[in-house]
Amino acid sequence: MEKIKVAILDDYQNVAHKFANWKLLDKNIELTIFNQYIGSNPNLAEKLSNYDVLCVMRERTPLPKELINKLHNLKLVITSGMWNASIDTETLRARNITYCGTETKIHSTAELAWALIMNSWRGLQIEIDNMKDGNCQTTVGRGLKGNTLGIFGLGKQGLQVANFAKAFD
To answer: Do 8 and 57 contact (CB within 8 A), yes or no?
Structure first.
């Protein structure tokens, strides 16, 4: 039996091996991991043409109709997360290519967004750098209480960020 050719695209954080036990599939698949961004490669269709399965990391390398239609061996596209705006799902459906996503930890994105809000509003990075240099609180941070936070979209992520904001009135 010929092995299924699987490509993981844009794993620039080298996390693909941490989140799945690919060794369980060694007898059945030939795995290639692209750690560098390949989406701007002018020969992308040629580079991906032999793969049966593409595992796409977020919206890094888009899969538009033009590219999908050049990938004649493609049978399955998996994206990290439950959906991916850079994949032409209609073309996949029309070509009878299975498309699915992976579970995601929704809270982590909202937590990161809130950490960045705290960092930028309160000037935390300056204080962290100052503490590394042996200094203690060299600036006066701005308070969050009573300020207005603009959130674009109140989907799962936006609602979590809004809930974090409630703690600061």
So the answer is: yes
